[in-house]
Amino acid sequence: VDQSVASSVRGLGQFLRFASVSTDPGRAGDIHRCAQWLARQFQEAGLAATVEPTGGHPIVLARSERVAGRPTLLLYGHYDVQPAEPLEQWTTPPFEPAVRKDPHGFDAIYARGASDDKGQVWAHVQAIAAWNRCAKLPVNLLAVIEGEEEIGSPHLAQWMQENRQQLKADVAIISDSGQYARGVPAITCGLRGLVYAEVMVHGPSHDLHSGIYGGAVANPANALCALLATLHDAQGRVNVPGFYDDVAELSAAQRQAWNRLGTDEPAMAAELGVPALWGEKGFSALERRWARPTCDINGLSSGYQGPGAKTIIPASASAKVSMRLVPNQKASNIYAGFERALRQRCPAGVRLEVIQHSGADPSLVSEDSAALRCGLRAVQTGFGAAPVLIREGGSIPVVGLIKSILGIDTLLVGFGLPDDRVHSPNEKFDLAALHAGTRTAAALYQELSALGRSS
Amino acid sequence: VDQSVASSVRGLGQFLRFASVSTDPGRAGDIHRCAQWLARQFQEAGLAATVEPTGGHPIVLARSERVAGRPTLLLYGHYDVQPAEPLEQWTTPPFEPAVRKDPHGFDAIYARGASDDKGQVWAHVQAIAAWNRCAKLPVNLLAVIEGEEEIGSPHLAQWMQENRQQLKADVAIISDSGQYARGVPAITCGLRGLVYAEVMVHGPSHDLHSGIYGGAVANPANALCALLATLHDAQGRVNVPGFYDDVAELSAAQRQAWNRLGTDEPAMAAELGVPALWGEKGFSALERRWARPTCDINGLSSGYQGPGAKTIIPASASAKVSMRLVPNQKASNIYAGFERALRQRCPAGVRLEVIQHSGADPSLVSEDSAALRCGLRAVQTGFGAAPVLIREGGSIPVVGLIKSILGIDTLLVGFGLPDDRVHSPNEKFDLAALHAGTRTAAALYQELSALGRSS
Questions:
Q1: Which whole number is the average pLDDT over A377-390?
Q2: A84 vs A68: CA distance, rounded Å
Q3: Which residues neighbour A405 within 8 Å (Cβ) at sequence distance 6 or greater?
Q4: Is A297 close to B303, i.e. CB distance below 8 A?
Q5: Which stretches in chain B have pLDDT values below 50?
Q6: What pLDDT, on a 0 to 100 scale, did the predictor assign at position B234?
Q7: pLDDT of amino acid B454
Q8: What is the pLDDT of chain B when averaged over all its residues?
Q9: Would you call A285 and B216 a contact, using CB atoms and an 8 Å cutoff?
Q10: Considering CB atoms only, which of A214, A231, A308 is closest to B296?
Q11: Cα–Cα nearest to A434, from A130, A137, A49
Q12: Contact B176/B429 with Cβ under 8 angstroms?
């Protein structure tokens, strides 16, 4: 691994050139070319690899030669990325990867998907290649790298069901999370769930002159804002009946452990460009991000949005709204309560439409298992520092699918840094993290090879 | 006039081909070409005409030879138009005028600006040409056709100030309003005012991952909706302190007169594509449109607005908000109260920015004047039907400027129809209204020639 650092960065640069934006129908060609390219990289690393069709974007499936008596690892990752907009905020174009110093002076590669998740998948590809160059991969390895993670994995569950037999494994590994801070690597033991919905308010059949008709018809944009404003109370809590019913309270021990990790809240505020952090009263920022649910508007659109003025009552108004869920909330219950509350509160004179884009339950991983101990040792080897146990505010819905469909627990070993700006302009991946992550992956295969064996 | 119907429609078609969208900086060339073309049309109609530069888009100034002892009329109109978006809702392209039957089977010309205001300006150009073909225009006429009406006439006041001497006139005429209904022509005696503002809420310096940071920072889109939702109470009234303080209550006689005009509210709802009309309790739809103030969101924009899902906390959120004002509200007071209320209500954790795009006071015209009586007779001649006295929900801010700067009262004689869809896709102008309007303008010059003479 240490001898192939430069070629690893070059290879990741190729990976990042594919504009594999899964939500954009116009990028289907980029998605397919990216999948084909990735399959070839697994082949060059010594695995058999195929591009598997699904009802949507394809899955790259790679496998080592199956040796009886060895444990089998299921590696999951994704090669699709978030949209890159707003493009004008990128220093270098999102699909023209550029290596430069980050604001703290560390070398990084800048591109959409650098950290989420191509760079982390790439660390595994490089670790597999290194094993097969020098010795022989010491475990049976199955890699499932999908192309629809950023749109809620709509075809993954069915594909897993149909391929349950060949996906049998002892433990799953996902590297799609992060270190706690530079120099403090981590293993993630909890993830928030997600409900993503679109709320549309329909009014007149066409935009109306706001002078001629203003006052005579309900304004869909006014109605949408009134409706969305009901979703929080004055304390910043989500105002949907039953929303908090299943939320697990944190133990005092857990809160103490997280307090010891320490967050420099003013530094985080400065990093994000806000005067101060903000949120639900009674919880630290870390607790709010890891263990409290949210309801955030992700996008608003209505009427005239160009420069200057246009005096219209818009025909419609829409919002994208997502809720992050924590143990033990259920995505299906939360979406049902959300839609019910909106329907009850919708003002007169307009028509409401609500659709769900995706849903995923939150997940917690045991903090005491043989696989976790292997992970802790591998991270120590890879990063040269002891990892901490953390949670993650984001959602990796596949953890739930892997458990429910394949019956396998997942080990979340992530290599990103908190300032990687995933989903934002100028996303990056730290080159030292790519190196340490590749070392960690290589060590992890070794550690896990001693685990209980499958048949 | 009756003998040049076909050539009038052809000429209007040329006028409508200019994409003279004043709010769009990319259309400045179209604006200039349109002004040059219009000046030539006035010249061909027998007037001296020039294109006058301003700090923004130019003004077309046309004048008849000044004959002492005759009254002088100031004709105001505008050759700029609203943006045509959303383009996909147009049956034929907005700047490729098409003559076809409207949904009720009447011939109309479809294009952006057909009714607002090019078609109505064109009726006057044709009336002037007809007079000069057959006899000699019986009044001194000054035409001021500006290119910035749809963006609030930012340079008109200064230009009028600088040209006060040459703009001296006895009465002003504007044709930028409408008939009450097909077969019921009208003269407009009241206009609402307008305050147009933009409300921006700024949060983090870049879009953030809603999983990693959700709950830790204030969401600007959530904050914007919360803020805008405070602008109305549960009764549909505008919830800004002092907003109604100066609103003139309608007299019982006025309400009775308007009731006699009659509005078919279900028919209007069907026309607009809404299940029912809606608005402030205690007032008919006509009263709400003509004599009650409003606060409408004209546009909303924030975060991700493409297809599918993107899980971000947007860096900012913005809304375009307009308020229609009625006698005796003052635009300056209303904007000040609006901004003050927003600043007081802005939630913590975000930064608020409010700017004013334009402002115009409402206006009322005397229902008993010599000029009005001339107008009533001219409309009877032009349309063959007695006109009614109405108000207009829209704003023509120049009426106030003409009064305050030039000291002249305005006669509002409009030819549009309520279903012309001004500011909307598929705007049209009725060909019978073009003909009757041209006849009305020609008769109006004759009627007004007997008015009290200027020096």
A1: 96
A2: 44
A3: A157, A160, A161, A164
A4: yes
A5: 454-455
A6: 87
A7: 46
A8: 95
A9: yes
A10: A214
A11: A130
A12: no
Question: So which residues of B are the catalytic ones?
Answer: 80, 149
- SS3 sequence of B237-271: CECCCCCCCCCCCCCHHHHHHHHHHCCCHHHHHHH
Q: CA-CA distance, B13 to B108, in Å (whole number)?
A: 11
Of B23, B222, B418, the CB nearest to A309: B23
**Does A339 participate in catalysis according to the annotation?**
no
CB distance A209–B423 less than 8 Å? yes
Cβ contacts (< 8 Å) between B89 and chain A: which residues?
Answer: 206
pLDDT tens-digit profile of B184-237?
999 999 999 999 999 999 999 999 999 999 999 999 999 999 999 999 998 889
Q: What is the pTM of this model?
A: 0.83
Helix (H, G, I), strand (E, B) or coil at B424: coil
Contacts of A218 in chain B (CB under 8 A): 274, 278-279
* Amino acid at site A387: P
β-pair partners for B21: B81
**So what's the ipTM on this one?**
0.84
Nearest CB among B231, B274, B293 relative to A349 is that of B274
> What span, in angstroms and rounded, lies between the C-alpha atoms of B239 and B344?
13
Give me B453's structure tokens.
């003479």
Output the pLDDT for position B455.
Answer: 40
Nearest-by-CA chain B residue for A305: B299
Q: What is the pLDDT of residue A396?
A: 84
The owner of tokens 């954009």 is A24
B366–chain A nearest CA distance, Å: 21
What pLDDT is recorded for position A358? 86
Distance of CA B336 to the CA centre of its chain: 23
Q: Which two tokens stand for residue A178?
A: 């992060």
Q: Is the pLDDT of residue A423 over 90?
A: no
pLDDT, one tens digit per residue, over A224-280 is 999 999 999 988 899 999 999 999 999 999 999 999 988 889 999 998 999 999 999
Q: Which residues of chain B does A360 touch, with a Cβ-Cβ cutoff of 8 Å?
A: none
Question: Is the confidence at residue A453, as pLDDT, over 60?
Answer: no
Which of B228, B229, B310 comes nearest A83 by C-beta? Answer: B310
**Which SS3 state, helix, strand or coil, does residue B406 take?**
helix
Spot the catalytic one: A30, A117, A148, A149.
Answer: A149
Task: Compute the distance between CA of residue A67 and CA of residue A50 in angstroms, rounded to an integer.
Answer: 20
Across the interface, do A314 and B297 touch by the CB < 8 Å criterion? Answer: yes
pLDDT digits (tens, 9 = 90+) for B87-135: 999 999 999 999 999 999 999 999 999 999 999 999 999 999 999 999 9
Q: How far is CA A103 from CA A85, A420, B39, in A?
A: 21, 11, 58
Question: Is A80 annotated as catalytic?
Answer: yes
Any idea which residue has 């005491």 for tokens?
A368
CB pair distance less than 8 Å for A216 and B279: yes
Sort out which chain B residues have CB atoms less than 8 A from A31's CB and list them: none
Specify the pLDDT at position B374: 96
- Look up residue A353 and give its two tokens: 């439409």
Q: Give residue B453's pLDDT.
A: 57
Confidence of residue A397 (pLDDT cuts 50, 70, 90): confident
- CB burial class (10 A; 0-12, 13-18, 19+) of residue B265? middle
Instruction: Mark yes or no for CB contact A279/B217 under 8 Å.
Output: yes
Q: Are strands B388-392 and B186-191 parallel, antiparallel or unpaired?
A: parallel
- Taking CB atoms and an 8 Å cutoff, what residues of chain A touch B349? 274-278
Can you tell me which residue has the tokens 């944190």? Answer: A250
Residue A330, CA distances (Å) to A293, A324, A412, B365 in order: 12, 11, 21, 63
Q: Which amino acid is located at A36 in the chain?
A: Q
Inter-chain CB proximity A214 and B393 less than 8 Å: yes
* 3 state SS of A46: coil
Q: Which of B269, B300, B317 sits opposite A317 (nearest CB)?
A: B300
Q: Is the pLDDT of residue A455 over 80?
A: no
| B308 with A151: Cβ contact below 8 A | yes
